[in-house]
Write a structure and sequence with these properties.
This protein has 166 residues and is α+β, with helices and mostly antiparallel strands. 26% of the residues lie in helices and 30% in strands. The chain has 2 domains: 38 residues; 96 residues, Lipocalin. A hairpin with a 7-residue loop joins strand 1 and strand 2.
Length: 166
């Protein structure tokens, strides 16, 4: 058995239902974009993919050119003077060669063996030489355009003549 609808007669009830339907439809149309993430309501400039930023011109002041202090200037000058090959007149002509990359090679004419290592200028009279096998040792030196005097850590002086290089 069918229950009788209470309240309003059928035509009025239909009008009320249609009103509710319209209200729901309008609300759905308004709320639907929010439900799916505000599609289409995002301002255009934020919705567009960003273009890569054009690097701005560096407005910072140019870097100051470093002027070497006196000690650095002495080390640079000594390094330039040392570069090249030097030959010792005593003991069969041992040689020592200083390279621009900070490496050094001792060649023993008696043993016919080269001993590679590295060097670093400490000041106008001392340098540090480290052979491939061994600890760094501080040597004394005096250099002119054509002559090099090395003083071993034990105090023995060895004179070399420029053989090749600057």
């Amino acid at each position: 058995m069918r229950k009788k609808a209470r309240g309003k007669p059928a035509p009025e009830r239909e009008a009320t239902l249609m009103g509710h339907f319209r209200t729901r439809a309008v609300l759905s149309l308004i709320l639907f974009p929010f439900a799916i993430g505000c599609a289409g309501l995002v301002p255009e400039e934020t919705a567009r993919p960003r273009e890569p930023a054009v690097p701005q011109a560096d407005v910072s002041p140019p870097a100051a050119v470093s002027v070497p202090d006196e000690a650095e200037a002495v080390r640079m000058h000594a390094r330039e003077m040392l570069l090249g090959k030097w030959r010792r007149d005593a003991q069969g002509g041992d040689t020592i060669e200083f390279f621009d990359d900070g490496t050094v090679s001792f060649f023993s004419a008696v043993e016919k063996v080269a001993y590679p290592g590295s060097f670093r200028i400490l000041d106008k009279a001392r340098m540090e030489i480290q052979m491939k096998s061994g600890a760094p040792l501080t040597w004394g030196y005096a250099v002119t355009k054509g002559e090099l005097t090395l003083t071993t850590p034990t105090g023995m002086g060895m004179k070399y003549k420029r053989y090749r290089g600057k």
